[in-house]
Structures are given as C-alpha cells and as structure tokens.
Design goal:
This is Lipoprotein. By secondary structure, this protein is of the alpha+beta class. It is built from 1 helix and 2 strands; from the N terminus they run αββ. It is flat and about 50 Å long.
C-alpha cells in the first residue's frame, strides 16, 4: 500500500511541474464528424469534434 501512495505522489508531483502552454490553436473552425460501420452492419461508431465518441 505504501508503494501505491508513493507512485500516486510521484505522478502528481511530476504533472504539477509542467509549464503552461505558450500558444494554442484550434485545429478546426467548423463542426466536423466521422462515422464508421462494422463489417456486418450491426455496429456504428460516430465521432464529433466537440463531443468525442
């Protein structure tokens, strides 16, 4: 149990040391989506830029 807390503490310490982003840019300006059907047509996967999968 002690090693678990050590791993969690180290992970939080490392992630807290990350600098802020200097510049961010939007990759898309208009809504976009993608869709895919399984080979047998029973399953569909739809992904949008704003809501993910």
């Amino acid at each position: 149990m002690k090693s678990f807390f050590s791993i969690v503490f180290c992970t939080l310490a490392i992630s807290a040391c990350q600098p802020d982003a200097i510049d961010t840019q939007a990759l898309i300006t208009e809504p976009s989506y993608d869709a895919c059907l399984s080979q047998n047509g029973q399953l569909a996967l739809v992904s949008t830029a704003h809501s993910g999968i």
